[in-house]
Amino acid sequence: MLENKKHTRLQAFTMLELVIGMVISSLVITMVYVIYDNLSRQVVVYADQQDDLMTYNQFQNLFSKDVQLSTSIAIDDDRHIVLENANKEIHYFFKTEKIIRKAEAVDTFNIKVLEVQFDQNEKIEEKYQLIKLKIEILGASFDFFESKEISLASRMNNYLLDEY
């Protein structure tokens, strides 16, 4: 005896539904990848900018300290100065792409130096010796100033030595 077989309908996805699901999931995965890629590039750029700012801050602090603790500033040429202390000399070389500090050890700061100006004219009425650097950081250029007070005795000596 043959039993009457009922056709049972299985529940499954059709091919069209599978293709639409794959297209939607591939679009979502592509958008997530693009967002991740952009974020990772921005993180790298941000890290490079922070490195540049850290280098500048280290240079600024060290240079200011060296200038203020120096007893005199000797200008060797238009891109080299010597800061004299009681027991040592510190040389600064201002190259185009970097600044080199030579003391007991050699330090290099990757800072682009566009222009260097020294105020060499020590007159009796001038109280400060000025160092001006035009530097470029993060694509922008700006002026960096550092000054050293010239003592009255030193100004008088220079004035009297110029007279004779």
TrEMBL record:
Matching InterPro entries: N_methyl_site (IPR012902)
Stretches that traverse the bilayer: 12-36
One Pfam family it belongs to: N_methyl
Domain of life: Bacteria
UniProt entry keywords in alphabetical sequence: Membrane, Transmembrane, Transmembrane helix
Name of the featured protein: Prepilin-type N-terminal cleavage/methylation domain-containing protein
